[in-house]
Automatic annotation (TrEMBL):
SUPFAM superfamilies: Putative DNA-binding domain, Thioesterase/thiol ester dehydrase-isomerase. This is DNA repair protein RAD14. It comes from Agrocybe chaxingu. Residues 81-131 form the XPA C-terminal domain. Belongs to the C/M/P thioester hydrolase family.
């Protein structure tokens, strides 16, 4: 037992503990010696001096760690030589490696606690001029270091781009596989409408227009994929108009009153997505949110900005009014967080017992006597007098027309003229190879076709054309708003008494797959704007839709310079 002189008796330590205490005392002595300030000699010649100003007030830390005699004043005055660099800066700016920086004989460094977080490792600080001397020696010269730095930067950029392209490729592959798997797993079941009586008491049921549309889409999708030379529908920007109208109008419901486009078409030399497609897709979305006893009778829409074909459009339907005879819906089309299109549409319970009136159908040749626009384009292309630049233009037009789901013929008949200029144009239009859809979807197809050759008629009437010269050159053509009013004829009325009146509110009073005459005129154009009116007739002369549109129609004319009023010194009279 050993008296600790504190009132306690403690056991004597063993020999191993004594060795540990002795070694700890030796290490503490070494640390104290290492941390002692540098001794000052009485002889000034023996004291180290600053390498810059010969002052004896040198920094002991720099002398101990970096073996560099320099005073505090010179450190602050010459940071380009005596500032401290972190390990990251040495690796990034001077391209030094970790083994080189850890070697204290090659690169002496100062250890300092990390100021960002106490649990982080100590910072390694290096003297700038020592780092630069070692880097110049390693790379040969500062210019050689710059060359190596640029090479590595370019290589990193290439590797980053390569990695991004590979990840994008993998994402596309996974997306395509998931889409096909989803379509493969989807189950389709027919839903039929009410039974319709036919001869001998045998009844039949037909599918509703929405599900009939879906069936046709499923059939037509694979036909398009097999016939198309590119896989645009699933792979890219959908910048080629689809060959079947049902695919162009197709939207998917992602939430209640919320729909999303599945394909978008950018016409040739257009600023954005085809306006008729945006109108018809918005109309399909709105019709899906209306009860079946109501029929569309009008729509009014504004194009706020052009739509990009690379991003799907989301259609948000709002139920504004639920009346007994009329209901109203609004549709906002949103792309990239911005509203690009607004539409108001109204639906009515049909009143076939009310009196009717319409303008007569103009006297034009039958569609069988008119030529397709593709034939007219081909004739211009084969004409040896056509300029080579125009040949390419019409070749592009021919390719686009051949793939369009809407067939168009120019009805060159009795068209009014004033001063040798045509003021009214007529076209025969129909959707290519479609079944007899029910009335709601027929109106969506008609809305799609109503935007074709519409505002461009105003530029033709004014004699403006692309590629023209001076005041006859068309600089801009864009739609501002679009309106359609639908009027339908009653197919069957058995009695004038309301109680015994029989009518079919959703009967197909027109078929978009048959020829419709589109008569267009332009009553007024000014201030870079023009308004056009249109009327659509069936082959037997029934007016089924009236259209109106205003758009920007600008000639390539510069704005005249403003003339300042001449200055005068005359005094005003009281």
């Amino acid at each position: 037992m050993v008296n600790s002189k504190g009132g306690f008796l403690v056991d004597e330590g063993n020999k191993a503990d004594e060795d540990l205490r002795r070694k700890e005392k030796e290490r503490e002595h070494q640390r104290n010696v290492h941390n002692l300030d540098m001794p000052m000699f009485l002889d000034p010649a023996l004291n180290p001096k600053c390498r810059e100003c010969q002052s004896m007030d040198i920094d002991p830390t720099f002398l101990k760690v970096f073996k560099c005699s320099v005073c505090k004043t010179c450190q602050n005055a010459k940071p380009e030589k005596y500032s401290l660099l972190t390990k990251t800066e040495c690796k990034t700016d001077y391209l030094l490696t970790d083994p080189e920086l850890r070697d204290e004989e090659v690169m002496p460094h100062l250890l300092k606690a990390n100021p960002h977080k106490s649990t982080y490792a100590n910072m390694m600080l290096f003297l700038r001029f020592q780092v630069e001397e070692f880097a110049w020696k390693k790379w040969g010269s500062p210019e050689a270091l710059d060359v190596e730095y640029e090479r590595r930067t370019e290589e990193k950029k290439k590797n980053k781009n390569k990695k991004f392209e590979q990840s994008l490729k993998d994402l596309r592959k996974r997306t395509k596989e998931s889409i096909w798997q989803k379509r493969k797993d989807e189950e389709h079941q027919h839903q039929f409408g009410p039974t319709e009586g036919i001869k001998n008491g045998v009844g039949k049921q037909g599918p509703t227009w929405k599900l009939s549309l879906l069936c046709t889409q499923l059939q037509q999708r694979f036909v398009v994929l097999l016939n198309s030379s590119t896989f645009i529908m699933e792979e890219g920007l959908n910048q080629v108009e689809h060959e079947h109208i049902s695919t162009s109008l197709e939207v998917e419901q992602i939430e209640v009153n919320l729909f999303r486009s599945k394909s978008l078409w950018l016409p040739l030399r257009a600023r954005g997505v085809f306006g008729g497609q945006v109108i018809s897709q918005a109309l399909v979305s709105a019709t899906s949110c209306v009860r079946s006893e109501f029929a569309l009778h009008s729509l009014h829409c504004y194009f706020l900005t052009s739509a990009s074909p690379s991003t799907p459009i989301v259609y948000s339907v709002e139920r504004l009014r639920e009346g007994r005879s009329y209901v109203t819906r609004s549709v906002k089309a949103v792309q990239n967080g911005h509203i690009i299109f607004i539409m108001l549409c109204s639906f009515q319970k049909p009143e076939p017992w009310q009196p009717t009136h319409q303008w007569s159908m103009p006297d034009v040749p039958a569609p069988e006597q008119c030529e397709d626009e593709e034939v007219a384009y081909m004739r211009v292309i084969q004409d040896p007098k056509t300029h080579p630049a125009m040949v390419q233009f019409f070749q592009d037009q021919l390719t686009e027309r051949a793939r369009s789901p809407i067939a168009i013929k120019s009805a060159k008949g009795q068209q009014e003229a004033e001063g040798g200029r045509i003021v009214r144009y007529s076209y025969w239009m129909k959707a290519r190879d479609i079944p007899v859809y029910e009335a709601p979807f027929q109106k969506c197809i008609l809305s799609y076709a109503s935007d074709m050759h519409f505002i461009s008629t105003a530029s033709r009437i004014m004699g403006l054309r692309r590629g023209g010269k001076g005041a006859e050159s068309l600089a801009m053509l864009s739609t501002l708003d679009h309106s359609i009013w639908f009027y339908r004829r009653v197919l069957q009325v058995l009695s004038y008494k309301f109680a015994s009146l029989t009518y079919y509110p959703f009967s197909n009073d027109f078929h978009a797959g048959d020829w419709l005459l589109y008569e267009i005129d332009c009553p007024r154009a000014a201030s870079g704007r023009a308004i056009v009116h249109g009327r659509m007739y069936t082959r037997d002369g029934k007016l089924v839709a009236v259209t109106s549109q205003e758009g920007v129609v600008r000639a390539n004319i510069k704005e005249p310079a403003l003339q300042q009023a001449p200055e005068t010194n005359a005094q005003p009279k009281l």
